[in-house]
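ping. complex inputs:
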Amino acid sequence: MRTLFYLLREAWANIWTNRTTTVVAILTTAFTLACVGIFLLLYVNLRAAAGWLQEDIKIMVYLDDRVAAATVNEVEQQLRNDRAVAALHFISKEQALGEFKAQFPSESHLLEGLGQNPLPASFVVTLSPPFRSPDAVQRWAERTGRLAGVAKVDYNQDWIDALSTVIRSIELVAIGIGLVLSAAAVTIIANTIRLTLFARRDEIAILRLIGATKTFIRIPYLLEGAVLGGLGSAMSLFMLKVLYELFRQEMRTTGRFSGLEHLIMFFPLSICLVLVAVGVGLGCAGSFVSLRRFDEAKV
Amino acid sequence: MIQLMHVTKQYNRRPALSDVTLDIQKGEFVLLMGPSGAGKSTLLRLLIGAERPDDGQVFVNGRNVTTLKASEIPFLRRKVGTVFQDFRLLPKKSVFENVALPLLVQGVSSSDIKRKVTEALRAVGVEHKRDQLPVSLSTGEQQRVCIARAIVNGPVVLLADEPTGNLDPVLTGEIIELFKLINARGTTVVVATHDPSVMAQVNRRVVTLVRGTLMPEQRVVV
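pong. complex structure:
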C-alpha cells in the first residue's frame, strides 16, 4: 500500500513539477484528438444516415403473371422463412395498377388502352442490416430470382453501390487521419514525458542503484502519460460537444437543413468512454516510447 | 563474498582494469586504494552490475554478475549497499524518506519501514534529523544519511566510493569508525579511496590499483 501510495505521489509530483508543460501537452493532445474526433463524428453520423437510407432500399420481387395462387403463397412462405428478409409486403396486380394511377394520373390512360392490367403482382422486400451490402443484396436477388413463380427481382444497384463506396471512403479517411493524428498525440506525450525523465534523471539513477526494478521506476511515468492522454481525450470530447451544440444551434437559428438537427447525433456515452480509454492508451504508449529511449540512452 | 577472476575492462580502447584477480571473504574490510583514474570506481561499478567486464568473471554473494540478466540486477543491488562521495540523496525528500527508499522499492510494509529506518538512522547518529531535508544537513550528516540508506535493508556487502572525499579529517575519522562498526556486525565492507590518511585509520587489508592493474597487497598496522 505504501509503495502504491509512493508511486501515485511520484506521478502527481511529476505532473505538478512540470505543470506548464503538462497543461500545454494536454491542450495540444486535446486539439489533436479533437481533429480525429471530428472525422469520427462525421463517420458515425454518415454511417447512421447510410443505415437509414439503406432501410429505404426496397427490393421488388415480381411474380410471373401466369402463376397460380398456391405458388404465390409458396413464394411468400419461402420469403418469410428467409432470415435475410426483415419485412415483406405483397402488392397484387390491382394494387399495382391503383398505385400507378395514383402516382401518374396523367399517364393512366396509357394502361387503359391495353385492355388488361399489364402490371405484375409483387413482393416488396426489405432486407435485414447484415444483408444490405452490395454483394449480399446481389447474391440474395440471384437466389430469389431462381424461385418458381418469380419473374424478376429488381432493385437500385447503383444507389446501393454508391452508398457503400461513400461509407467505405469515409471509413478509410477516418482511419488514415486517426492513425496519423494518434501518432502525433503519442509524440506530443512522449516529448513531455522525456522532459520529466530528463529533469529527474539523477533520481532515476539513484533508484536504479538501490535496487528498484524497471517496472517500479516506470510506473509513475506511465501514470503521468495515462493522465495526459486521458485528460487530453476528455477535453477533446468536451470541445467536440461544444462545437456540436453550436452547429445544431446554428442549424436551428438559420433554418438551413431544417429537421436535420434532430438526425445528427453525438457519440453515445459508451463511445465517449472508449475514446477516453484510447487516450489513456495513447498516453501510456507515449510514456513507454520515452522510457525505452531513456533506458537505451542510460542518461 | 566477492571474487574477480582475470577481469579486464576498457573504455574507448583505454584499459580501466587489466587482468584483475581479487578475492574478498565474507566479513572482510578492504580498502581499495589508488590515485584518481586507477580503476577503483570501475571495479565497484562491476560489482553492482552497472558495467560488464570485457573479459573475466565477477562473482558477488555467490552470483556471477557477468551473466546476470538486466532484470536480475536490481535484486543483486538489494544485497549490496552503496555509498558515494556526492551522497546522491534526493533533495526534495526528507532524511526519513531517503533512507526508506531501498525498502520501499522492495515493497516492505509500512511498520517494518518505520522500524528499520529508525534503527539505521540511530546507527549512524542522525535519528534526530529524520524530518529534515538533506540540504539543511552538514556534509558529514549527509554522508551518514547516505550510509544509513546503504545499510537499511541489511546488505551483505557495503561498497563505498570515495566516501570521505568531501569531508574534513575529523569527519573522515567518524565515517571510518562507522564503517568499522558496520563491518563488526558481519557486513563485508569495501572502501575505495585515494586518501592515504584513510589507510592509516582503517588498519585492514589494502588492495591497490594503479592504472587498472592490481599491486601486491599490504596490511597496515597502526
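Chain A touches chain B through 18 residues (CB under 8 Å).
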